[in-house]
Amino acid sequence: MEKMENSHKRLPIVEHDAWLQPVEEQINRRHDRYEAKMEKIRRSAGSIVDYANGYRYFGWQWDETLDGWWLREWLPGAQDVYVFGDFNNWQRTEIRMHRDAAGVWSAFFPAAMYRDRLTHGSLYKIHVHGDNGWLDRIPAYARRVVQDDATKNYTAQFWQPAEPFDWQGDAFDASKLGSLLIYEAHVGMAQEREGVGTYREFTERILPIIKRDGYNAVQLMAIAEHPYYGSFGYHVSSFFAPTSRCGTPEELKELIRRAHELGLAVIMDLVQAHYVKNLNEGINELDGTDHLYSRPGEEGNQPYWDSKLFDYGKEEVQHFLLSNVKYWLDEFHFDGFRFDGVTSMIYHHHGYVTFDSRERYFDGGVNEDAITYLTLANRLIHDFRPAAVTIAEDVSGMPGMCIPVDDGGIGFDYRLGMAIPDFWIKLLKDIPDEEWNIWEMWSVMTNRLPEVKTVAYAESHDQALVGDKTIAFRLMDKEMYFHMDRASQNLIIDRGMALHMMIRLMTISTGGQAYLNFMGNEFGHPEWIDFPREGNGWSYAHARRQWSLAGNRLLRYSWLGDFDRAMIRLVKKYKVLEDGYPWNLLMDERNKTMVFSHGRLLFVFNWHPTASIPDYELPVQGPGRYVPILSTDERRFGGPERQSMEVEHVTFNIQGDDGKEYPRIRIYNTSRTATVYLRKRLARTEKARN
User: Cys-Cys with 561: which of 84, 173, 282, 550 at CB 3.0–4.6 Å?
Assistant: First the structure.
């Protein structure tokens, strides 16, 4: 291919950002790498959508012409491969697979011989002879993997229901939702009983809660099969198999279809940053070598996560991962992905450096292969399912992450605002209320480029795990176990309730163009997450959600839940997230008060622990009557309601230094309170008076 450096038309990503112009050559080179890959894909398959069809070739595939089943697996380093299962009485070396020039091993099962033996639910493995010896393995393209209750061993399962799942009528379009309000959830721990929750339970019990609470998207964790439950689904072993702990693939499909009927998008937490080391369950050394899906030696390890890394520059690995992306969209109708561990993917150092200069994003520490792969993945997703959503979990701030591919970017729709929960934790952990810097707060919440859409969140599953604390628990700690009944009086609980609501309202109204909440956090769930392990007697007591707390009107949890619903309703009704950056009207550091606006809404946050100020004067965007419509201090949310929600605040004008008239209002500015006012028009008589 001819060199393009001198012939490059300047890419929009550079055209629109002068800060990137000194590294234009590197950005062009990255885009050229992507274009070269795309051209190769077009030549071989016609389009990237047709290219990403590995799941239609590998694994079990019905051959209509030959009237039988093929089983195919890519194992180039293997010396010998057999398939065995309950259909041949587990005889390991009876059915030999045959290798082609590309390293793909296959075996054919004619229906005439196997119709009554190879049936839906049959169990099987492959027996691989490689450099690591003879090992029983699970194929990489297995679509269902089950664990034996007695032996705890995992085995692949031939999964071919008599009738394919009926998606008829499922024409859900996530692009019509408007701003995303994401409810992050884990199916297994979503139930209240002690045990592993099922797809069916989630469909019947949890989806209605998410819909009732006003969220329009659910983000599902731990979908792909993983041997260790306590990994939260992040050590994947089988990339094409939905975890069987929670039920069948059809029950997962039913969950998604039902979510669509309720108007909820379903986003998958996709783990392609690494994979589990396990030989018994995973794809590590599947062909006997240490470089099948990884680079050889230490380069193939993720030392911080005790897992294996993908070699994103290897064509077969690229094909495997792109096929995996399309598979979940095609077979399960997911509406997009939250790509886990993007920072780990795009840097050889996995982000364990200080990003203190522009060069950090373009030096030898960057994994260019991973950037090319992610760009291809975004192209595939948006070509195959234009309404699909992609979210990048990147803490580094890589330029171009959320810029369209054609403009020279990587192509994600959103990034996770990971600095936001870190900031709240630092504030609550290290700094007394009286010393909170509201300018710093404002800066962290609004620190994003206009073209980079951000998913704002106060906390996700990360903050709920053992070893960390949720916001509610940081605020109220052990008092939650004794004073969350409504009749109880406790200053720690009062402070915690107020700040819990204020932090969430601040995050959703300033932090981005979308919002995320982890299940149960909206009502201040009191328990951390601790999966069954030897240290807790293999208990499920902390791997569940106590929904009954939120439903009990004698407890304060219900007040927090009520506030969350009211907050989500307000944000949707007045399109706060669509409005973009908030308009800063006042920063009063002495009284810890900030005032900003979104359209017709005026937000007043008084973070001071004690300073309540009568007749507090503040600027507003325009003349009118300002009516309080939501306050963290309201009785319906457990507050003392120190200011009336019925009073209208009519603007008056003051003259500025420039001689112009500026509208203002006076309010009772109560301590540790956030209040939202709606601006209404002045009547003619009022205009005349003013």
Answer: 550
